[in-house]
Write a structure and sequence with these properties.
Blueprint: E1 3-6, E2 11-14, H1 21-27, E3 45-50, E4 53-55, H2 65-69, E5 72-74, E6 78-80, E7 84-87, E8 101-112, E9 117-124, E10 135-139, E11 147-150, E12 160-166, H3 172-180, E13 186-193, E14 206-211, H4 215-227, E15 236-242, H5 251-255, E16 264-270, H6 273-278, E17 284-285, H7 288-296, E18 304-308, H8 311-324, E19 332-333
Parallel strand pairs: 1-7, 14-15, 14-18, 15-16, 16-17, 18-19
Antiparallel strand pairs: 1-2, 3-5, 3-7, 4-6, 8-9, 8-13, 9-12, 10-11, 10-13
Length: 338
C-alpha cells in the first residue's frame, strides 16, 4: 500500500488500492482542501514532489493550462503508483467530521418527485453516517467514473441513503439510474463528502436556496434543523427556483416537518414567464435570487445561507450575497458542482 507524505506538514497517510490522494487523505482524517471531488472545481490542486502517479482524468476542467505547465495535479483525480511526497496546505478547520468509507448499497425504492426528478433510495448494511447537506460518490454500472449526488435524508442506523436526481437526456449517470437499475441492484457508494453541511453552532436564522436536484441537500439541511434539539424554533426560509411550474417541488416534504408555517417557511419562483402564464401559475415569477432579496429584506444581512443548484443560480446568489450585501464567505455554504 503506497505511503504518502505531505511536504512540510508533518503528515503521512496510506493510500489503499483504488483510492485517490484526496480520498485517502480524508479517510485518514486530514484537512485536505476540496469541494466537488470530481475534478471540476480545482480546489484540491497539489504538486507531486517525489514518486509516480496516474492521472485518471487528464482533461479535468479543474486544472488550467498554467497549472499543468507547473506540474500541478488534482488530488481527487490522482492515484499514486507507489510511495510519494506531495505539496499542499492542510487546513485543520476542514478535517472531516465523519470520515468517508466505501460500502456496497442496494437499490430499495424509486419514487417520482417531478416530471424529471426521482428519489432513489439505497440501503447499505452499515449505518448511513453523514452530516445534513453532504454528498456521496456513486459507482454506477457501465460508467468509468463515479458521480457525486447529495443525500436528501438524515443520517440513520438503518443504512438508508436517499438521493433526489434529475434526469439529464444523454447523461450516462442519470440514464443508468433511470433506465438500467432495478430494485435489488447493487452499486458502490463512497462517502460522505462535502463542506456545505449544517452548522448547528451558528446562532443565526437559516436560509436554504435550491434549484433542480439541489433540492436534495437543502431538504437534508432543513430536516437536520427540525431534528436538532438545540435549533428548536430556529427560523428556516426555504427557497426553490424552477424554470416552469412543473419543476417546482419540495413543499410537501417541508410541510411534514414540525414547525412548518411557523418556524419553517417555503417560497418558490418560476423563471419562465410564458410557461408560468400558460400553466396559470399564481406564484412569483423571476429568478430565485430576486425573490430571496425581496422576501428577506433586512433579515438577509443576519442569516446563514446554504445553496445548491445549477451553477448560474449559485453564481447569481454569490453576487447578491457577497458583492451586493457584503456577507462574509464563511456564512455562505455550498459545494461547487459543474
Amino acid at each position: 500500500m503506497p505511503v504518502i507524505e505531505i511536504d512540510a506538514q508533518d503528515a503521512v497517510f496510506d493510500c489503499a488500492p483504488g483510492d485517490t490522494l484526496l480520498r485517502a487523505g480524508l479517510r485518514a482524517g486530514l484537512g485536505m482542501p476540496y469541494e466537488c471531488g470530481v475534478g471540476a472545481c480545482g480546489c484540491c490542486r497539489c504538486e507531486v514532489i517525489e514518486g509516480e502517479v496516474a492521472d485518471q482524468w487528464p482533461e479535468a476542467p479543474g486544472l488550467s493550462d498554467r497549472d499543468r505547465r507547473k506540474g500541478r495535479v488534482l488530488a481527487c483525480q490522482t492515484r499514486p503508483l507507489g510511495d510519494a511526497r506531495i505539496r499542499l496546505r492542510l487546513d485543520p478547520r476542514i478535517e472531516p467530521v465523519v470520515r468517508p468509507a466505501r460500502r456496497t448499497a442496494r437499490l430499495a425504492a424509486v419514487n417520482d418527485i417531478t416530471h424529471d426528478i426521482r428519489e432513489f433510495v439505497f440501503r447499505s448494511d452499515a449505518p448511513a453516517d453523514f452530516l445534513p447537506g453532504q454528498y456521496a460518490m456513486l459507482a454506477l454500472p457501465g460508467l468509468d467514473r463515479e458521480r457525486a449526488y447529495s443525500m436528501a435524508n438524515l443520517p440513520n442506523g438503518a443504512g438508508e441513503w436517499h438521493f433526489r436526481i434529475r434526469r439529464v437526456i444523454g447523461g450516462g449517470a442519470s440514464e443508468a439510474l433511470f433506465s438500467q437499475l432495478a430494485p435489488g441492484a447493487e452499486i458502490g457508494l463512497d462517502g460522505p463528502y462535502g463542506m456545505a453541511w449544517l452548522r448547528t453552532d451558528s446562532p443565526r436564522d437559516i436560509v436554504c436556496i435550491a434549484g433542480g436536484s439541489g433540492l436534495a441537500p437543502m431538504l437534508s439541511v432543513a430536516r437536520g434543523v427540525a431534528a436538532e434539539p438545540s435549533l428548536a424554533g430556529r427560523r428556516v426560509d426555504f427557497f426553490y427556483g424552477g424554470r416552469t411550474p412543473a419543476d417546482i417541488c419540495g413543499q410537501p416534504e417541508l410541510a411534514a416537518l414540525p414547525g412548518f408555517g411557523e418556524a419553517i417557511h417555503y417560497h418558490a419562483a418560476v423563471s419562465d414567464a410564458d410557461a408560468a402564464h400558460r400553466a396559470g401559475w399564481s406564484g412569483q415569477i423571476g429568478p430565485i435570487h430576486q425573490l430571496v432579496e425581496s422576501t428577506l429584506g433586512e433579515r438577509l444581512g443576519s442569516a446563514e445561507f446554504y445553496l445548491a443548484g445549477p451553477p448560474p443560480m449559485v453564481e447569481a446568489l454569490q453576487q447578491l450575497l457577497q458583492l451586493t450585501h457584503k456577507l462574509p464567505p464563511e456564512r455562505i455554504h455550498f459545494d461547487r458542482f459543474f
